[in-house]
Amino acid sequence: MNDTRPLTETNRHDRSTISIARLQPKITANPIEVAIADWQIIKQRDPAARNWLEILFCYPGFQAICCYRLCHWLYGLGVPFLPRIIANLTRFFTGIEIHPGATIGKGVFIDHGTGVVIGETAIIGDGVVIYQGVTLGGTGKETGKRHPTLGNNVLVGAGAKILGNIQIGDRTNIGAGSVVLRDIPSDCTVVGIPGRVIRNGSRTIDPTQNLEYLPDLEAEVISKLFDRIKSLEQQVRDLDDRLHPPIEGELKTSHLRDVTETDREIEDFLYGAGI
User: Fold this and answer.
1) What domain of life does the UniProt record list for this protein's source (predicted)?
2) Segment 173-204, tens digit of pLDDT
3) CA–CA distance, 242 with 254 (Å, rounded to integer)
4) What is the β-pairing status of strands 196-200 and 188-191?
5) What is the reported pLDDT for 27?
6) Per the count of CB atoms within 10 A, which of 28, 64, 150, 260 is most buried?
7) Per-domain residue ranges for the chain?
8) CA separation for the pair 185, 5 (Å, rounded)
9) How far is residue 134 CA from its own chain's centroid?
10) What angle separates helix 82-94 from helix 60-76, to the nearest 10 degrees?
11) What is the predicted pLDDT for the residue at 10?
12) Can you tell me the distance from the alpha carbon of 25 to that of 105, in angstroms, rounded to the nearest whole number?
């Protein structure tokens, strides 16, 4: 059973330690095995990947991960300066910034990749999918563990920001543009600013699927507000009919026609926006 209790400062440290201990053995696996997993995950999840040459030369996410593996190895050996230089060159050529100190599991897919930032103490499990514009960052100038920990098979949508020393559980989906500032249990779906859990274990979404299954809370709220406005307008019409004599029918009809036209224009706009 997943532990969904709020984290105190004490058990936050305990959870972080558990996450590091759980993920570290996989991340220090055979480098050839890791490289193969990184390549295979692209073949499995991107139908546009035709062959290994395309993946090697045309996928900046794969290139950035490969360079990160080298930088992380040098960083672990205590080699000064060189890992950061290689990471900086990688950012220049791919648009993806991964600190050499970050801990990343195997089979991680950075799709498109431009604008992705992964901080020094971030931990990413196996099978994670990260889209463009994602930030795994800190929230201030604190030292120590200050970046997020992502479990296995997490999906992070385009433009999402996950900030601070927080835990994201296995198989959790972070919606595009979300800002997550607190711990999220496993098997959840999170959307919005700040991030809100809108599905918790009732339905598990395969992280290899696209983001069309993530609901748009803002669109739902706008749609409900518009329905409420239409209901209130109808109440006003009914009250107006009772208070005014029929002789003013032409004026009321003209007014109602204007309101109806406005409602139709709003409905057309909302429909065009996918709401």
Assistant:
1) Bacteria
2) 999 989 998 888 888 889 888 888 877 775 54
3) 17
4) antiparallel
5) 47
6) 150
7) 9-213, 217-272
8) 9
9) 7
10) 170
11) 39
12) 9
Query: Looking at the whole model, is its pTM more than 0.70?
Result: no
| Fold annotation for 9-213 | UDP N-Acetylglucosamine Acyltransferase; domain 1 (2.160.10)
**Which of 113, 100, 103 lies closest to 42 in space, CA to CA?**
113
Give how far the C-alpha of residue 103 lies from the chain's centroid of Cα atoms, to the nearest Å.
19
d(CA 110, CA 108): 7
**Tokens 């995950």 label which residue?**
41
Q: Which two tokens stand for residue 135?
A: 């930030």
pLDDT band at 31 (very low <50, low <70, confident <90, very high): confident
Q: Are 35 and 55 in contact (CB under 8 A)?
A: no
CB 121 within 8 A of CB 101: yes
pLDDT band at 84 (very low <50, low <70, confident <90, very high): very high
- For residue 96, the Cα-to-chain-centroid distance in whole angstroms is 16
DSSP-assigned beta bridge partners for residue 129: 109, 155
Higher pLDDT, 67 or 254: 67
Q: Tokens 């994201």 label which residue?
A: 168
